[in-house]
Design a protein that fits this description.
globular; two-stranded antiparallel sheet; 2% strand; mainly alpha; single chain; ABC transporter involved in vitamin B12 uptake, BtuC
Length: 332
């Protein structure tokens, strides 16, 4: 891979470069706030934004992990089942008769679930050579089935000390899950922007053949993002369990498409090698605010899901247009 091409790819990591979608998303969000506030003034209130920030942060954390997979040139469709199974593990461990499992052990067990499933996905994709969509759809079905086996009904979580992790507000207005999201976002940005492995993820996603010739270990580079994605999905399940105080096997249903929508809308290219987490942050805020705004104006929940699907299609079309435009500019 030539030095010029390498620099061109790495320049995509610059949040201030002219190809960044973040400024456009910020403008869209401002217009959306105005529209929803005109329809229902309750939308623009401190209490409502506290709720938005508490809920969109979970999807944002998961989007950070999925972004690394997509940037590397793969997909992870199993994050919804990882989310659900991790939440079920938390609830089950809190409800063992005659035995109290320490909270840190429960959290570590749930995180280990995400790590193991991520490693399984990474192994079959990078070592066995199975397409990432097929692999992760299979693990989605397998681990969703395991969740249903262990949790056909709601399982309550009686431990108040654990529930604080999802319900506490710093300074009375800043949700603790939002703090987790910011930490995950900063860690992910530093990893992708400044570490050699993170930069290799961009290079492999942009051109795996050229990266192999440049001496980059393709399998190792694409394996780690699945681990990261699994861990962030588990984090989402743990935080959600702490927020609502119960779990069941339906937790995480459809999340894979919701989180992918956030990634694509945030400028993460489906062909790999492009996008930053800054756009993902704004996209997560937009999707979370849209769900909240539609609820405030009494739009049925099924139509809210349909609206998210429409946004996904629009985001894919925009991504396709941007890729085609870049290709045309290269030929000029």
């Amino acid at each position: 891979m030539s030095i010029n091409k390498r620099e061109k790819i790495l320049n995509q990591l610059n949040i201030f470069n002219k190809n960044s979608i973040a400024p456009s998303l910020v403008l869209v969000y401002v217009l959306m706030i105005i529209l929803f506030t005109l329809i229902n003034p309750r939308f623009f209130s401190l209490g409502n934004f506290k709720g938005i920030f508490a809920t969109f942060s979970i999807a944002g954390i998961m989007a950070v992990g999925l972004s690394t997979v997509v940037i590397s040139g793969n997909f992870d469709m199993s994050i919804g089942s990882i989310f659900g199974l991790s939440a079920v593990i938390v609830a089950k461990l809190f409800n063992i008769d005659g035995f109290t499992v320490p909270i840190p052990v429960i959290i570590l067990a749930a995180l280990l679930c995400g790590l193991v499933i991520g490693a399984i996905n990474g192994f079959f994709v990078t070592k066995v050579g199975i397409n990432s969509i097929i692999t992760t759809l299979a693990t989605l079905a397998i681990f969703r089935g395991i969740s249903f086996y262990f949790s056909l009904e709601n399982i309550s979580i009686p431990k108040e000390a654990f529930l604080i992790l999802g319900r506490y507000f710093v300074f009375g207005f800043l949700p603790l899950p939002f703090i987790y999201f910011i930490v995950a976002l900063i860690a992910g940005y530093i990893f992708l922007r400044f570490s050699r492995h993170g930069r290799n993820i961009y290079l492999v996603g942009a051109n795996s053949s050229a990266s192999r010739l440049a001496g980059i270990n393709i399998s190792k580079t694409q394996f780690l993002p699945f681990i990261i994605s699994g861990l962030t999905a588990s984090m989402g399940g743990i935080i959600t369990a702490a927020q609502v105080g119960f779990t069941n096997a339906t937790f995480g249903n459809g999340y894979e498409f919701r989180i992918l929508t956030i990634c694509v809308l945030g400028g993460i290219s489906l062909i790999g090698g492009r996008g930053t987490l800054i756009g993902v942050f704004v996209a997560a805020l937009i999707i979370g605010s849209i769900s909240n705004g539609l609820a405030l104006i009494d739009i049925p929940i099924n139509w809210r899901d349909a609206f998210t699907g429409i946004i996904l299609i629009a985001a894919i079309l925009i991504d396709s247009f941007r890729v085609s435009r870049r290709e045309r500019l290269k030929l000029q």
